Amino acid sequence: MCGIAGLMDPGWSGSSEELAAAAGAMAAPLAHRGPDDEGTWADPSAGVGLGHRRLAVVDLSPAGHQPMVSADGRWVASYNGECYNAGELRSELPGGGAGLRGHCDTEVVVEAVAAWGLGRALERINGMFALALWDRRDRVLHLVRDRLGEKPLYYALVDGVVLFGSELRAIAADARFPTGIDHGALALLLRLNYIPAPHTIYAAARKLAAGTMVSIRPGEAGWPEQVTWWDFPAVARAAAASRPAGRPVADGEAIERLDELLRDAVARRMVADVPVGTFLSGGIDSTLVTALAQAGAPGAVRTFTVGFGGEGQDEAAHAAAVARHLGTEHTELRLSPSDALQAVPDLHRWWDEPFADPSQLPTLLLCREARRHVTVALSGDGGDEVFGGYRRYTAGSRLARWVLPVPAGARRAAATAIGGVPAGLWERAGRAGSRVAPRLVAGDLATKAHKLAGVLGAASARELYMGLVSAWDDAEPVVLGDSVSPWQGPAELGWPAGPAEAMMVWDTLSTLPDEMLTKVDRASMAVGLEARVPLLDHRVVQAAWALAPSLRVVGGTGKRALRLVLDRYVPRHLVERPKTGFDPPVGAWLRGPLRSWAEDLLSESRLRAQGLLDPAPIRARWAEHLSGLAGREYSLWAVLVFQSWLDGGGAGGSAGRG
Predict the structure, then answer these.
(1) Sign of torsion over alpha carbons 136, 154, 150, 502
(2) Burial 248-262 (b: 16+ CB within 10 A, else e)
(3) pLDDT in tens, 416-453
(4) Is this structure's pTM higher than 0.70?
(5) Fewer CB atoms inside 10 A, N or C side of the chain?
């Protein structure tokens, strides 16, 4: 795993050494992503410079040094990722790969492109990656992001110069890059708690969407078209269409095939020349990944979990029970309010674009602890989006059936009544209800009630989804300055998926790559840890969409197929419980140990001086939160991380460069 960066400056007039130094200066801020090696390559005739920071995981020798040039001299690559089928691809190369210098997967990728062309090579790669590839013959720079968006890639155009990097900090290292803020992206941050592709916090930069690429020739004007090379909605639709008509395949046969595929996906991600472990929360996804890893390992697998010091909801005790059953070597980290107080102000260092998923905090500390013992960790991310695990797929489908037919006036009245109930009353009701019907009353009832109030006005399943994923429903007016258009939501699918499957597609296109995987990438790379995600093997994703719907979401239960596979490895009672998630008790912390930090960042004088956000609605929401009203913490967290990012020097302060 690595960090990549570089530039294409058609008007370059300096030396090769100076161009290489410029690329190296862009890669230098990415040293945390690749602490083991650094390299540059330059072609001054084209103004192309590539930089690289390496985390050595497969082939620790100098044969894995990057940037890497193909044997025929045509292709030069700076590659961040892993190719899990490198062995098979190697054997299919001309001469069976006998001429390769080492066993680094990057060399296999470069030679695959040389042998088969970029498009065909991408189709055959099973992996996660961000790739910058310079074609010396045709003089084209290709920037490519993997199918599901496990690895990030940003790019910018500044007066005809192309800048790119694994993180925005690499692009901002070039003094020519203007760091003015994109007000529309800021509104998206407040609404979604993350900034979806192709937007970034900077008006002059974009991020590649998952499964897309851009191809840029020197001197071309305007933003290049993002071309989709792996079309997930089309893949999902084709897989769903392949479901057998009439009587479905017996569950046992389907589960056997899925088990075999998952075992292969996990086994491929256990291959490394460094120590490997797994993240274990005790939930279905991480437990399954850990069970499959342990089943194929010669000894005890290292497992890691984090708890919240007895506050809020976490699964640390359940993870410990699973670890004992599987016989793993388990490490548990406890996260206290004091830990949060120390770590929160520094989050902007690792998420150099504002990012407001509160679970970023325990994820970062978990990765830090894991890195003390291993260099690679397998994660259970993706299981919810691929196999239907989120409550919005089950509850959202029921809401679509029950709520949409009700007259709009009645729905608005109900929303007003629900939204006015104090958080304390919801919490007491939740505690009482959880004792009587724990499966029906699970998690934070106050937050759920507030969310329900916000979606009762929806006129369609798509609007319902928009309400369910929005932390701040009216975010656009909060942003000052440039007029910000209301969020249009996800694109219509164009095929008749039901509400649950439509939400799964929309999540896979945006929430998964730009929130969930961004969280894991930044937290792991901050400490030089490579995170691998077996449930996002593209073969697993396609197989999941080919399953009968009853094997994913049925009634009030999701991920049925994963549960049936897991039954083969772990007793059901160890994992069968309401989903709790991975968020720390940020609402309580903002009223307690983090209150002074938040009060300072949300002060009216500070907000007015910055001139980016309207203080009135923010101060009103802060007052509501302090009074005990439910569901305000996530929208406030988005404002707080943006303010902290500005305070830490993001965008050069409130104005930025340019």
Answers:
(1) negative
(2) eeeeeebbeebbebb
(3) 777 667 666 766 666 566 555 555 454 556 666 666 77
(4) yes
(5) C
Of 97, 2, 96, 110, the C-alpha closest to 58 is: 2
* Distances 525 to 3, 20, 186, 370, 535 between C-alpha atoms, Å: 9, 24, 24, 12, 20
**Residues in the chain, how many?**
658
State the residue for tokens 């305000």.
Answer: 632
C-alpha 190/C-alpha 638 separation (Å) is 5
3-class DSSP assignment, residue 462: helix
Question: Is 70 exceeded by the pLDDT of residue 1?
Answer: no
Residues in Cβ contact with 104 at an 8 Å cutoff, skipping those fewer than 6 apart = 58, 59, 63, 64
Which one, of 642, 641, 583, lies nearest residue 359 by Cα?
A: 583
Number of Cβ atoms within 10 Å of the Cβ of 269: 27
Long-range contact set of residues 218-226: C-beta below 8 Å, sequence gap at least 24: 218/8, 218/10, 218/46, 218/47, 218/48, 218/139, 219/10, 219/160, 221/160, 222/157, 223/157, 226/198
Of 412, 428, 478, the C-alpha closest to 611 is 478
Q: How many CA atoms lie within 13 A of 159 on its CB side?
A: 8
